[in-house]
Specification:
Number of helices of chain B: 14
Mean pLDDT of chain A: 85
Distance between the termini of chain A: 33 Å
Structural class of chain A: alpha/beta
Structural class of chain B: alpha/beta
Radius of gyration of chain B: 24 Å
Number of strands of chain B: 16
Shape of chain A: elongated
Strand content of chain B: 15-25%
Largest sheet of chain A: 8 strands, mixed
Largest sheet of chain B: 10 strands, mixed
Mean pLDDT of chain B: 89
Order of helices and strands of chain B: EHEHHEHEHEHEHEHHHEEEEEEEEHHHEH
Oligomer: heterodimer
Low-confidence stretches of chain A: none
Number of helices of chain A: 12
Distance between the termini of chain B: 29 Å
Strand order of the largest sheet of chain A: 1-4-5-3-2-6-7-8
Low-confidence stretches of chain B: 1-16
Strand content of chain A: 25-35%
Number of strands of chain A: 14
């Protein structure tokens, strides 16, 4: 859903002065979208990024806030040390905040004693370093992920990190992993020599390839072929092959399911269609909210990117 | 259970195969290759619960890459008929309309055999079909059939060699629906028969109550939070009430229910399992055996309900005509298939006393019945009043006892009732509720109990299933009560449909100066 850029982030929210935002929140309390639905206060989600990347984040967090106990804090970066604050039932928006004030604002607004997830939608990397210290989990989601990924090792020393592109790969990774539950596939796990990945987001393709290469630890060098397509789906097809063996995942024509097919030693099996699950921003962030621990597989996949063009 | 970064072990502690890709996978564990053989594949349970559960598991990517279903039943359906039954079932019970890719993919791996369950040839055909299926290393038999044919099917499975492993990496397991036996003697017989063909570790006696999130959460609530367990004892708890109420009558189950009754249909299994979870001591670890050992201890600590043929702390009754949900409903004896002079109880209530250091002197009151005013299952922990009534002179309203309510169904969650001061200059006290609801707290859906239990059985995790000794301990309590009723039927109280049971149930608590919670 696209909204006019001159529209405030939370159009139906109430505007309060920056200096009074804590008082306003305390006075109004936590007002879920459906007051009849009791909910556990599970986390604070802080979405930070350029203004144009926060509208859809605001929509997603409003949706999550309507279903769970998440307080959303939306902060667009700017030069104002006392920007206007808009408060709705479950969300707070600060537009144009000077990065130096970021920590102070988040510390005041986060829910006490509950996890804080920072959703990084891009911006100055110095700010990224600063907000990482506030986060129990940092989810990268910039248009260009490479600068953030380069800092990942250092960020991982401070907090658990992930990337929304990685979250989009969860189902694909799980389906590939299911092939390796088959003993015949497991027996030859380290021998697959060719990987082809095709889809609309080159970074997603690299991440998948990095993960597979780092996990399989192939005995021989794996030939990796990444093909970026104009289609909307970040990833459309994966083929892992070697000689007579072939494991294939393909996005079904509907775009909502993945078809799997395995051929091992000329023996076809494990062909099925499974749901891709919800892939909207709200679903992906909800998935990240359920993860509490460090994601070493993601960190290994990033480390393996050096060998993936 | 929330998605976790997947460890290389399942919940039962069994090491899984060396899958190089599963490390750190953000999904719940999936079983190895499995073929599910459903006996009673054309029946109600399969249509209403099992097929929707399999579809939902398939959507959620919980089923293994190599998964098949073989349906076995007397109805002549054929493979295509079974697949059509899947489509019908999904439309009727899972709200799946139109083309469904996941359903079609699942259906393509569903097969059907029809025949008489006592015919050895049927089992030879089953064996042949399993040999043809890719991925039949692991076979899970599901007895979704009337209890009267459990023994026949188990014997035939054994005689056909189907319980024996075809390969070293394979496994054979069996899920048996409740009721497991009709009394202590038959439960023992059935256990002995099952153990002739299956090791206890491969026997999964299913009680769908134990698959409910709230029931599982009882363990987390008690043993993952430091604040509740210290007060979970006779020093702070006055009594416990467990209610399992249904608004429906006997419906189409008269043939079964006439021989069972509320005591054996509900108390022996569901309610005893819930009592065990509330009363058990902390397990040393969350492993199947540790949890089930502690549950067994709890059930063994319950004082016998009947001595010398008398059971003073047990009430039974049967529903008469009345009104439920705005409709006039017939009495039990007027229901189709029910004997006009039936002595089957549709309501049971009882007081349990536990001989344990933790629970000595704390009664557990249980009640269950059909045609009650509301469909609800809950556990209510009633705490003792504060030792001193500080507000007695200044507050006109009495202080209510604290109450912790675990809602098992229909709205799974936990509530705490405590007293708060009403706003204003006067000191007035009113009870308020603090609520936690699964349906809204975490977002997303709560898995159906059958989904949880099917996956656990495929994974070989028996934590949420009843062990043979727990089942027998439960029957050992219930059987003398039932025998006593049969030996001296006496007058069976009748309660009006739509009421909370007979007055005798109220008297049971009134004797102790208590009353049932108003639900």
């Amino acid at each position: 859903m696209s909204r006019p850029q001159d529209e405030p982030l939370l159009p139906s929210a109430v505007e309060v002065p920056f200096s009074e935002m804590e008082t306003a929140l305390a006075r109004w309390g936590f007002r879920p979208a459906r007051p009849d639905a009791p909910r556990a206060l599970t986390a604070t989600v802080v979405a930070i990024g350029p203004r144009h990347r926060l509208s859809d984040a605001a929509d997603a967090l409003q949706q999550i806030g309507g279903q769970t106990g998440v307080r959303a804090i939306l902060i667009s970066c700017g030069t104002d040390h006392e920007p206007s604050v808009r408060i709705s039932g479950t969300s707070v928006a600060l537009e144009g905040l000077e990065p130096g004030y970021m920590n102070n604002a988040v510390a005041a607004l986060r829910l006490s004693s509950l996890p804080t997830l920072v959703w990084w939608r891009g911006g100055d990397l110095a700010t990224l370093d600063a907000v990482a210290t506030l986060a129990d989990r940092l989810v990268l989601d910039a248009d260009d992920p490479v600068p953030g990924w380069r800092r990942a090792a250092a960020l991982a020393e401070q907090t658990a990190i992930s990337d929304l592109r990685w979250t989009r790969l969860t189902r694909w990774r799980a389906l590939m992993a299911h092939f390796f539950d088959i003993p015949e596939v497991q027996a030859v796990a380290g021998t697959f020599g060719r990987l082809e990945v095709r889809g609309g987001d080159h970074h997603v393709l690299r991440l998948f390839a990095g993960w597979l290469a780092s996990s399989l630890q192939s005995k021989a060098a794996m030939s990796i072929d990444l093909t970026t397509t104009p289609g909307p789906a970040p990833i459309e097809r994966v083929r892992l092959a070697d000689g007579t063996r072939e494991l294939v995942l393909s996005l079904a024509p509907s775009g909502t399911c993945v078809q799997t097919a395995a051929r091992v030693e000329g023996h076809a099996g494990a062909s099925r269609t499974v749901s891709l699950g919800e892939q909207g921003l709200a679903a992906l962030i909800s998935e990240e909210l359920r993860i509490r621990s460090r994601d070493l597989a993601f960190e290994r996949a990033l480390a393996a990117l050096k060998g993936v063009a | 259970m929330a998605a976790i970064l997947r460890p290389a072990q399942d919940r039962s502690g069994h090491s899984r195969g060396a899958n190089p890709l599963e490390d750190g996978l953000r999904i719940e564990p999936t079983p190895g290759a499995t073929t599910l053989v459903i006996f009673g594949a054309s029946g109600d349970l399969t249509r209403r619960k099992l097929l929707p559960a399999l579809h939902h598991l398939s959507r959620g990517e919980r089923l293994p890459a190599r998964f098949s279903v073989v349906g076995v039943a007397r109805t002549p359906l054929g493979d295509e008929g079974f697949r059509q039954q899947l489509r019908d079932s999904l439309r009727e019970f899972a709200g799946v309309e139109g083309e469904d890719e996941v359903g079609a993919s699942l259906g393509a791996r569903m097969y059907y055999l029809h025949g008489e369950l006592d015919d050895p040839a049927l089992y030879q055909r089953l064996r042949q079909r399993l040999d043809e299926i890719d991925g039949a290393d692991g076979v899970l038999f599901y007895l979704a059939i009337p209890p009267s044919v459990y023994a026949t099917v188990i014997e035939q499975i054994g005689a056909a060699g189907l319980s024996a492993l075809a390969s070293e990496s394979g496994w054979r397991r069996i899920i048996i629906e409740k009721p497991f036996g009709t009394d202590l003697a038959t439960a023992r017989e059935l256990n002995q028969l099952v153990h002739r063909h299956f090791d206890e570790a491969h026997v999964f006696r299913i009680d769908h109550y134990l698959g409910k999130e709230t029931v599982q959460n009882l363990l987390v609530f008690r043993f993952a939070n430091g604040m509740f367990e210290p007060i979970w004892n006779r020093r702070y708890i006055d009594h416990v009430q467990i209610t399992a109420a249904e608004t429906v009558g006997v419906e189409r189950r008269a043939a079964y229910y006439e021989g069972a009754g509320a005591l054996r249909d509900m108390v022996q299994n569901h309610l005893m399992q819930v009592v065990a979870l509330v009363a058990m001591e902390p397990p040393t670890a969350f492993t199947a055996e540790s949890v089930r050992d502690r549950k067994l201890d709890a059930i063994l600590s319950i004082q016998p309900l009947a001595a010398d043929g008398r059971s003073d702390g047990v009430v039974r009754a049967q529903y008469g005509t009345g009104w439920v949900g705005g409709h006039e409903v017939p009495g039990y004896r007027e229901e189709p298939g029910v004997a006009r002079q039936s002595q089957t109880e549709t309501f049971a209530a009882m007081r349990l006393q536990l001989d344990s250091w933790r629970w000595a002197g704390v009664p557990f009151y249980l009640r269950t019945g059909k045609r009650l005013p509301k469909r609800t299952t809950e556990i209510a922990i009633q705490f003792k009043r504060p030792p001193l009534e500080v507000f007695k002179r200044v507050s006109p309203s009495p202080v209510a006892s604290n109450l912790l309510i675990v809602n098992v169904q229909p709205d799974e969650g936990i509530s705490v009732r405590f007293d708060a001061k009403l706003p204003g200059s006067r000191m007035q006290i009113a009870p308020v509720m603090m609520n936690f609801r699964y349906g809204t707290a975490f977002g997303g859906g709560v898995p159906e109990a059958y989904e949880t239990l099917l996956i656990d059985a495929m994974l070989g995790d028996p934590t949420l299933f009843a062990r043979h000794d727990v089942v027998e301990a439960s029957w050992a309590l219930i059987t003398p009560v039932h025998d006593g009723w049969r030996a001296a039927p006496g007058e069976l109280p009748i309660y009006e449909a739509g009421e909370w049971g007979p007055k005798e149930a109220d008297a049971l608590l009134a004797q102790d100066g208590r009353r049932w919670r108003t639900l």
